[in-house]
Amino acid sequence: MATHDGSSGDGFVPFFRRYAQTWVHAVAAAGMTAFGTLTIVHRGFAVLALAAYVVPPIVLYLRRPSTDRAESDATPDSAEPVATGDGSTDAEPASLERPADATSPEPERAGTWTLVDATTEATLRDVCVTAAGAVHAVGEDGLVLAGTGPDSTDREWSIALADGPAAAGEDLHGVDATADGAAVWVAGDSGTVGRLEAETGRHTDYTAPAEITDNWLGVAVGGPAGDETVLLINGSGAVLRGCYRDGDLSWNEPVTPGSGSSLSGVALADESVGYCCDTNDGVFETTDGGDSFARVGPVGADGTLENLATLGKGDCFVSADDGVVHRYDGGTWTPERVGEEAICGITRREGETIVCDADGAIHERTAMAAWTRADTFASESLLAVSVAGDGHRAVAVGEDGTVVERW
Q1: Torsion angle of alpha carbons 22, 25, 26, 27, nearest 10°?
Q2: CATH H-level superfamily of 82-406
Q3: The whole model's pTM is what?
């Protein structure tokens, strides 16, 4: 997962970063230069030069729509450029595009989001809800939390590991489970990697896979327990593939799908198909379980890519730190504005996509509806979110031990 400062995206500095990429900024800069040249005629032109550059962004900032407006107003009526795989743009309005999951049945609406006490104040960086509805979250100092499944009457959280699989206290950044939820993998700093058995809580340390001690920024798992494909990503743009077969674990040589920019997200839909994204607008698809990757980006994002989610080949949703989600339908990238904050976490199930942002908000979208913000609002940044395939449980986690659940 990409790092960020969790600050509000509704302030002037985030606004000016976006403004600096527009034609208005270019015209204002040209005006400042022109008036600045005329100061040789009269010094009074210096005032006009300054005004030409300063006034436009201030006026636009004060007149911008509020981020608290109704969700029905959040989707722009005007056409937005749609980034394609070759970097070109399509001016067709995003609102007229058929969503990639529009053919999926409208899912049954689940419960409400509720803040819960997860017995920790440590920052939680990633979370995974298994097929059985159990949940694991990871974060600072090697902490691994486990939440009971839906059959439990107490719905309690407990500490599965206090200081990581190697008992070294290294921060953990990623967690993912096998397709059946029987095994959970965690990964983090200094090459930390571990595998937990969900039912017994027994863990095995696999730190420094292939003798690599890089900081692992994410992990993705495909296949059932005992026949697992594991992908690890790092800040050097490399993907390391592991194969766990009946207790034996082997690692391939790492591959670098892109230019070497830090990878910020990775996800597997099954043991073969998956995607990863980097901080240089690149997205890469694998159909052989991470042996090789093909570039399907650039996305065309104005912001930096944060994370992604997928349900299969030709299906990928990527979030960015400017409040936009970009969806891929196998040939075209289409932007969808969700809000103004960095969208740190994203998860999908058939017919539904959920994201969480750096301002503590959760946004949901079903196949036939626009993005809507959940009523529950965390006071801290939310960094990751995960949902069970049946939608009966979803969990978002973030700074200072923040946990928000939907039952």
Answers
A1: 120
A2: YVTN repeat-like/Quinoprotein amine dehydrogenase (2.130.10.10)
A3: 0.75
